[in-house]
Amino acid sequence: xxxxxVFSALAEPTRxxxxxxxxxxPMAVGALVVQLDISQPTVSKHLxxxxxxxxxSMTAQGQRRIYSVQCEAxxxxxxxxxxxLPAEEPAAELMPVDLDLIQDPQDANALPAxxxxxxxxxxxxxxxxxxxxxxxxxxxxxxxxxx
Length: 147
Known about the structure:
The chain has 147 residues and is mainly alpha-helical. The chain is 55% helix and 10% strand. Strands 1-3-2 form a three-stranded antiparallel sheet.
């Protein structure tokens, strides 16, 4: 399987819809036709391309053909994409919560101070994760969108 075949197969929006439908459970062609509201010849044509790119596999159950997602091809694609990401920076240490602030759990004044400290620590971690996710998303083109 060449990475070009995988990208080529996933460039078509209908094929991505088929992959999304199959990620939940293996399905027969007829079930895909009903779920996606696409003609049977069209679904079969796209499944052939996905099969040739090793993105789906087919097993026969009597006269029915059951298709499922091939995780190996997806793993290869993800590994290839990860190579373009910058080296991961170590996350800043989360501030430890001072449990001494909560000497008496019944003390209504002690809990807000500890909660505030914990909230600040969680907030900092969330800012780091959100920033990192935004960096990753900005590096990749939006597949399937036309301008």
